[in-house]
């Protein structure tokens, strides 16, 4: 084996990405726990709150999160029992349903967002000048779109929505 392979900048890039993710995830998890939310529940609430009508089809929610379709169903079931979400039948497709944020879910999200944003500022965006942040955001979007082309499904950002595999 070539010992220089470990100096490959591709390995360094992915290693740094994993280290950053782990460090931020630990800080986020502790802060979210103070508000009675798991990281995945926060992700679901945030995705829904940022979507048109504060709702997404369950399949689109799965595509936008780190969850499988069955995983989304379990999380939405739990969050619905806790009053954070509700389900609404899709009027045009009886096989589909929407997850919709409730006022209680928005209130919980509002309560934890100031601390969440402070962590982002202190440990991520605040470490970068504006041009570096723009470059990071551009790069992350390109990589995200390559590895998860359905990540924006149902968000209203895709003019071709409904015409592709998502």
From TrEMBL:
Top-rank lineage group of the source organism: Bacteria
Xref: SUPFAM superfamilies: Winged helix' DNA-binding domain (SSF46785)
SMART domains documented for this protein: HTH_MARR
A Pfam short name: MarR_2
Annotated organism of origin: Micromonospora sonchi
Domain HTH marR-type: 10-145
Single Gene Ontology BP annotation: response to stress
UniProt-recorded name of the protein: HTH marR-type domain-containing protein
InterPro entries from the UniProt entry: HTH_MarR-typ (IPR000835), MarR/SlyA-like (IPR039422), WH-like_DNA-bd_sf (IPR036388), WH_DNA-bd_sf (IPR036390)
Molecular-function annotations in GO: DNA-binding transcription factor activity
């Amino acid at each position: 084996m070539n010992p220089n392979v470990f100096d490959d900048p591709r390995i360094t890039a992915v290693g740094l990405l994993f280290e950053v993710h782990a460090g931020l995830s630990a800080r986020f998890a502790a802060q979210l726990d103070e508000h009675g939310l798991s990281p995945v529940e926060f992700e679901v609430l945030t995705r829904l709150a940022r979507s048109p009508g504060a709702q997404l089809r369950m399949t689109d929610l799965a595509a936008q999160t780190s969850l499988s379709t069955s995983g989304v169903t379990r999380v939405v079931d739990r969050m619905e029992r806790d009053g954070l979400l509700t389900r609404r039948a899709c009027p045009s497709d009886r096989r589909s349903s929407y997850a919709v944020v409730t006022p209680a879910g928005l209130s919980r999200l509002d309560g934890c967002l100031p601390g969440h944003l402070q962590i982002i500022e202190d440990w991520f965006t605040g470490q970068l000048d504006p041009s570096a942040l723009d470059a990071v955001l551009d790069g992350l979007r390109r990589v995200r779109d390559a590895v998860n082309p359905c990540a924006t499904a149902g968000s209203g950002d895709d003019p071709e929505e409904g015409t592709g595999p998502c």
